[in-house]
Amino acid sequence: MSKSNRSELSSDPEFQLITKALGVISGKWRLYIILLLGDQTLRYRQLSEMLPGVSEKVLASELKSLVALGVMKRTAYAEIPPRVEYSLTRKGQLALPILKKIQEIGQIFN
Amino acid sequence: MSKSNRSELSSDPEFQLITKALGVISGKWRLYIILLLGDQTLRYRQLSEMLPGVSEKVLASELKSLVALGVMKRTAYAEIPPRVEYSLTRKGQLALPILKKIQEIGQIFN
DNA sequence: CTGAATCCAGCAGGATACTG
DNA sequence: CAGTATCCTGCTGGATTCAG
């Protein structure tokens, strides 16, 4: 990483990229949820059951953020009872291999 | 990621790895500091100057955490004035290529 | 020079109840 | 079924001062 001592860190393009990337993966459950979804399409209820101990509020807001970030897409069907499915976007799938690598870091420092 | 519906998430080994990895990279500056150091050896003052806007307290505690995690090593010389140098451990260097990849995630979602 | 100590604000994340 | 609405708490990171 080369340094161009500008006075503000926030103007460093590398810093901006890192911040962006951290937005996708940081948070107690975020990365785990993405890897859990993987290439599947899952309903809200399925995700919820796969994440025991994560409250509705937290799961819902994480999913919302991930959709807003462009990692996942949400598809709602106008049925009764309601059905909502989540899957990775193309960008999400692009990022997936790298995200899986992050687990290796966990192994290195075990 | 395959799921074996055990009742507690914290007993899932994959979750543990992810949590471990997140410990290394999450935090507003942590990942940036690691990439900034890269293969170099830098003194505290140099790091501090490369990180305008990061207070002494935050920098010092981040470095301490990174040393505790085994990512960096700290070498202090008994001189006056004191000299302290930081560099990546072998484990840190092992992780470096993956950490660099994380920036690509930032590019994907730009 | 290299930090530690203190004090403090904001927000991510959790518990629980309720709605379309 | 798929979420909101509230309310609450602890931790992360920031400002400033002090010390070896």
Distance between the termini of chain A: 27 Å
Question: Biggest β-sheet of chain A, characterized?
Answer: 3 strands, antiparallel
**CATH-scheme architecture of chain A:** Orthogonal Bundle
Number of helices of chain A: 5
Largest interface: A-B, 49 and 49 residues
CATH class of chain A: Mainly Alpha
Query: How many distinct folded domains of chain A?
Result: 1
The SSE string of chain A, one letter per element, is HHEHHEEH
Q: If you consult CATH, what is the topology of chain A?
A: Arc Repressor Mutant, subunit A
Gyration radius of chain A, to the nearest Å? 17 Å
Structural class of chain A: alpha+beta
Oligomer: homodimer
Portion in beta strands of chain A? 5-15%
Low-confidence stretches of chain A: none
- Give the overall shape of chain A: globular
Superfamily (CATH H level) name of chain A: Winged helix-like DNA-binding domain superfamily/Winged helix DNA-binding domain
Strand order of the largest sheet of chain A: 1-3-2
In percent, how helical is the residue content of chain A? 55-70%
By DSSP, the count of extended strands of chain A is 3
Mean pLDDT of chain A: 93
Keywords (chains A, B): DNA-binding, Transcription, Transcription regulation
Organism (chains A, B): Spirosoma aureum
Domain HTH hxlR-type (chains A, B): 12-110
Protein name (chains A, B): Helix-turn-helix transcriptional regulator
